[in-house]
Specification:
single chain; mainly alpha; 11 helices; 0% strand
């Protein structure tokens, strides 16, 4: 799920890197190494997220209050994801992901090209995790097997990172997530 959702967000970096390495005999290997570096970070994030989800489910299953009031976990995840949309870390990482040429310029030296290709992917993956981790956690609320939600959340991340006006999506998304969190909270306290 994680890999399928994140491949579209790395497309601009791959396109620029492919042009940069055009004409090289080892071009396919370098592009593959960049992609492997990027996906290794997201795979690690996915393992941590799924492990944390399993621990959380185990904790909720042993806690009678949370078993009856599981919505509290949903409110917390929505609130964290919404609040993160306004953080400086989010925007710093988003800026790095949105400017793949400057990213390549900063991290690509052209020496030891295979290792640098992999490292370029790793660095880009770290910044992309930095800007998208909270949105990715929403998959645990809506169901990690839900293809529809996976596509919707992927579309939000692709727009936010790859479309010129995408940065302006962050604040309204954050407001929407926070309002949803508050609405669920209010509904449960009214009952």
């Amino acid at each position: 799920m994680t890999i399928a959702m994140m491949v579209p967000t790395v497309t601009p970096l791959l396109a620029i890197f492919a042009r940069l390495t055009q004409g090289r005999a080892d071009r396919a290997i370098l592009i593959t190494l960049l992609l492997l570096g990027y996906l290794s970070i997201w795979a690690a994030f996915g393992l941590v997220a799924h492990s944390t989800d399993m621990v959380l489910h185990s904790f909720v299953d042993r806690n009678a209050f949370l078993t009856v009031n599981g919505w509290i976990v949903g409110v917390a995840v929505l609130g964290v994801a919404g609040a993160f949309q306004f953080s400086k870390v989010k925007y710093r990482c988003l800026d790095k992901c949105r400017t793949p040429f400057s990213f390549i310029n900063e991290y690509w030296r052209g020496t030891d090209v295979r290792l640098q290709s992999y490292r370029l992917g790793v660095h880009h993956g770290l910044f992309c995790v930095g800007c998208c981790w909270a949105i990715m956690l929403l998959m645990f609320l809506v169901g990690t097997g839900s293809v529809g939600w996976m596509l919707a959340i992927s579309a939000v991340m692709v727009i936010e990172k790859n479309i010129a006006w995408g940065r302006w999506l962050s604040a309204p998304l954050g407001i929407g997530l926070l309002l949803t969190s508050v609405a669920i909270l209010v509904l449960h306290f009214r009952v």
